[in-house]
Design brief:
16 strands; 18 helices; Rossmann fold; alpha/beta
């Protein structure tokens, strides 16, 4: 287990983490006709919206309770209750999540009580799912906000099996997939293919690959999300054959779902690289009862060939990584699987995945910590989000972009890193970054001593190869 070094600085320099309300909003955006509402000032919501728009390059539905000076002191419960009423009347959502910010938490808001008061005051909106979540942005990170929001949604909406009349295995081909915040829309699309190749029907909870994958719709504008997991699907989770949990941060959500429904859970900290993907494929074969498809056998062989092709560049490579815990753990294992070394590991916050990261120490900190440690340890490649690009430029090393936000690359949110195919491309990307900068582990150029200065009498002689090098020949004398 690595040593985890807690924060000691009084401030963040070049911050790494995105806040918990951003993570809670991301989880909400994976449900169909959903609306996240941030309980705080308008600036908190605007800041989160800018992050999302720059990352996904899509219009993002977000609402705010617009706390001002007076409501911050006197209380803002009316903002929450009446704000929900306005959203329910104008947008007809299927799901509203109310996510607290640091301002609301400091003011002392009881968001669960506000939900109860809303239900009592406006019973006509009983068919709309409303979930209040405590996500203060002065603690945690995007990953923890995502995880606690998903856990609260499942706790609120998944009924007990005895009450709902569900039974594990009733829908023999259905597999619930609790998808962690580190999985991109591209990851989920590839994961959907994997399950369907085994004849299974995945229900992603949440499903950002359907709502944030960047597709044109017939509507000019929608005040709520278009696509994602339908709330009606939540009622069927208890009939599934199995549940896949991908991301150690979702342990609480997985426990809630399994305890409520009795559906068995297969738990994966990540599915990056050969070994982790092998474990996933074995689980899918066990669940479906089908043999591994030929195309997957082919993809596995392709990944093995890529590992052979790139091991000259990636073996013994010194890598610095800054990310949320689940993503940090996934990339660290991918690097180690190739014989590389994670010399610097910086996490945005604490999380259960940190206990399994293959690194000597992990610093919970910011991008300044990443830059200073990477320089000290002689890191040759950085892995991180777009905020880490300037640090990489100052260090003179390449960076593999991943995580959130990615605002300086178009389509970064759509890259797939999971499975055999995703790992193969990630290895190629890393190897090409190394080759483009420092020609890591390549054989140095050989320069003959005869190319420097030849004696006057030998300059006109032709050269011939011998076992000991090139020598002038005197055959014509």
């Amino acid at each position: 287990m690595p040593e985890i070094i807690k924060r000691k600085k009084a401030m963040s320099v070049n911050p790494l983490k995105a806040s918990q309300p951003v993570g809670g909003s991301l989880a909400t955006l994976g449900f169909d006709r959903a609306m996240p509402m941030l309980h705080g000032s308008q600036g908190c919501t605007a800041f989160a919206k800018v992050y999302f728009v720059r990352h996904f390059r899509e219009p993002i539905p977000l609402q705010s309770t617009a706390m001002d000076q007076a409501s911050s002191v006197m209380g803002a419960d009316e903002n929450v209750i009446e704000g929900r009423k306005v959203i329910a009347e104008k947008s007809s959502p299927q799901l509203i999540t109310v996510l607290t910010t640091g301002l609301a938490e400091t003011q002392g808001a009881d968001i669960k009580r506000c939900v109860r008061e809303f239900r009592g005051r406006y019973p006509q909106f009983a068919d709309i799912a409303v979930v209040g979540v405590s996500t203060p942005d002065f603690t945690g990170c995007l990953e923890s906000g995502f995880a606690v929001t998903l856990a609260d949604i499942l706790d609120e909406l998944v009924p007990e099996a005895a009450v709902a009349g569900t039974k594990p295995g009733t829908r023999q081909r259905q597999v619930n997939v609790l998808a962690g915040s580190h999985l991109t829309p591209g990851d989920l699309e590839h994961l959907r293919d994997l399950l369907e190749w085994f004849g299974l029907r995945p229900v992603f909870v949440p499903d950002v690959s359907d709502s944030l994958d960047g597709h044109l719709v017939d509507e000019d504008f929608s005040p709520v999300t278009v696509g994602g997991t339908a709330i009606a699907e939540i009622k069927t989770l208890g009939d599934a054959a199995a549940t896949l949990m991908i991301g150690a941060s979702l342990k609480k959500a997985a426990d809630i779902l399994e305890n409520r429904t009795g559906v068995p859970t297969y738990r994966f900290d990540h599915v990056y690289g050969l070994a982790a993907t092998d474990a996933l494929i074995k689980a899918l074969a066990d669940i479906s009862g089908n043999r591994v498809p030929d195309r997957l056998e082919r993809q596995r062989a392709q990944l093995q060939d890529a590992m052979v092709d790139t091991h000259f560049m990636l073996g013994f490579l010194k890598v610095a990584i800054a990310a949320d815990p689940d993503l940090l753990n996934a990339f660290s294992h991918l690097v180690r699987e190739m014989g590389g070394e994670v010399v610097t590991a910086v996490a945005s916050g604490d999380g259960p995945a940190l206990a399994h990261v293959p690194a000597a120490t992990i610093k919970i900190g910011d991008l300044e910590d990443l830059e200073l440690s990477a320089k000290e340890q002689g890191a040759e490649v950085l892995i991180g989000n777009s905020h880490a690009v300037q640090a990489a430029e100052r260090l003179g090393v390449p960076i593999l972009r991943c995580g959130f936000p990615l605002y300086d690359w178009v389509g970064g949110y759509q890259k797939a890193f999971i499975g055999y195919a995703g790992a193969r491309q990630a290895l190629f990307d890393l190897a090409n970054l190394v080759l483009a900068t420092n020609h890591h582990h390549e054989v140095p150029v050989y320069r003959s001593i005869f190319g420097q200065k030849l004696p006057e009498e030998a300059r006109d002689y032709p050269l011939e190869n011998t076992a000991h090098g090139l020598h002038p020949t005197h055959a014509h004398h």
